[in-house]
Amino acid sequence: xxxxxxxxxxCLAQRRxxxxxxxxxxxxxxxxxxxxSIIAYIYMPVTLPLSWFNNANQTKLYNVVHxxxxxxxxxxxxxxxxxxxxxxxxxIRTEDISIYQYAAHPHNYHFILDEPDKCKQDPxxxxxxxxxxxxxxxxxxxxxxxxxxxxxxxKAVLTLFLVGxxxxxxxxxxxxxxxxxxxxxxxxxxVDSYFNLTIKTMVIMDWLATRCPQAAYxxxxxxxxxxxxENMMTLLLSPNTPRQNxxxxxxxxxxxxxxxxxxxxxxxxxxxxxxxxxxxxxxxxYVFSNDLPPKIVKASEAVKPFNIEDAYVGACLxxxxxxxxxxxxxxxxxxxxxxxxxxxxxxxxTAIAGSPEKRRGQRGLSKPFMxxxxxxxxxxxxxx
Length: 384
Hints:
By secondary structure, the chain is α/β, with parallel strands linked by helices. The chain is built from eleven helices and 16 strands.
């Protein structure tokens, strides 16, 4: 009996000691867990989805803080301001596309392939052709037609192609071999996709500003366009054509911003809040005085970027209080040529209508044109 009593007391004492030991420890554990959860929620970085503009290639955003061509480290203003205010970056979804940032300023990128000495011969006019890395046929079509010319009406001309990342070692090796053969390729380390066309255009502007400031004029021209060089040079050599603050092409007035999330050309209000774009020049091909590239790059630091590249250039020009100029004969900057018999090609400066194969077939024409492969957002907008 005595032994049983002692045993019960011992067990009771053990329970009391055990319970007294566990209870405060448990409370501490729960409190610590809750505290760490709150800290993690507030301060831990969240892994965000790929940006809209790089999601097409399912790859990471390259060198968003890389020291750029002009030796400056820069982000777009709207990203910097958000970081300062410690506000979350806006996330918008359109179908399977997520937008959270757009580090498009050219100083965030550097050249993998470059031709820094190409402008030592002081070209009068430089054609800059944005093209996808795999579009060798398009580049060769240009090389065998209007891009083969080095002098027009006694003025030196130069044609260069700009591409982004290839996405593969074999494709990169082929591109480097092409570069060694032709010496007309520029490659920057941004993801090459449709939604990165604004990056591509701004990198073009920065190359002209830093590598070729001595050129009198430059033209950004799509790879599926044909340029009538004689008519282009006649326009630029006219005494009525300005030498500064000049940009012309197919003008777009009062174009509405597309808010339909299912549209390829959708732009959210977070990126561009206004409902109407400023006057801009259709991105298929516009020519400009070469004093504009450094000004546009500088203006872009104050203009929130969005994915419609030609309208974005228009927004930068608005920031600079520079209005695009109408061509003396606007019909010379043509859009689509569906029937060659219905239009006098000898009077055009630009035209669009077919494929690289058709371009090669036109190399014998005295006033040829280059076809269009894809419908641009601007033509979509012009449709009723």
